[in-house]
Write a structure and sequence with these properties.
It is an enzyme of class 3 (hydrolase). By secondary structure, the protein is an alpha/beta fold. The protein has helices at about 20-35, 70-80, 115-125, 140, 150-160, 165-185, 190-195; strands at about 5, 40, 45-55, 55-65, 90-95, 100-105, 130-135.
Amino acid sequence: MIKLIVGLGNPGQEYEATRHNAGFWLVDQLAREAGATLRLESRFHGMAARASLWREDIWLLEPMTFMNRSGQSVGALAKFYKILPDEIVVLHDELDLPPGTVKLKRGGGAGGHNGLKDIAAHLGTQDYWRLRIGIGHPRSLRPEGASAPAKEDVAGFVLKPPRREEQELIDAALERSIPALKLLAQGQAERAMMGLHGKP
C-alpha cells in the first residue's frame, strides 16, 4: 500500500516548465484529480496535501528544498506520520529513458539523480518505490552530426523546458502513469508494473 506520493522538482517560477520538474507536474495532476490543494507545510519543508485518491488516504508532497536536498522533506513527513519506505513512491525525471517512456520499480541505485540520493540518505534505505519519467538524454536527442554533450550540458539539459514534441510524449506518459499508481496504491504492484511496462 502507498501512503505517500512525492514529486521531485525545483521550487520557483523559473523552474516550473523544466525537465527536472516532471515529478511536480504529475503530483499537480493527482492533486487536481483528488480536488486537493497543496499548501506550504514548513515542518515538512514542502508543499503537501492529504488527498483521497482511489478510495485511499494518501499524502502528496512536493519538496521545496531544491532537488539535492529532497530527502529532508520526504524524511520529515515520513517520520512524522510513521510512513515506511516501501509505502512511498517518488516520481522523478529519468535521463536514461526516452520521452514518452515511464517505468516503475522498487529499490535500486540513484543513477546519478541527486534527489534520489538524498532521499535514500534520509530514509536510511533505497527500498522505496520510484516512478521514472523519461525525459531523454542530450546525447540521444541531439541533432545528427552534432558533437556529444559535455557533462555540464547534461546539467543544463534538465533545467531547460522540453521541446514541444518531447513535452507531448511526456504528458502522455504522465497520463498513463495514473492507472499504474492507482494499482500500486491498492497493493497491486505486479499489475501496476505490467500495465506500464507492456506499453512503449
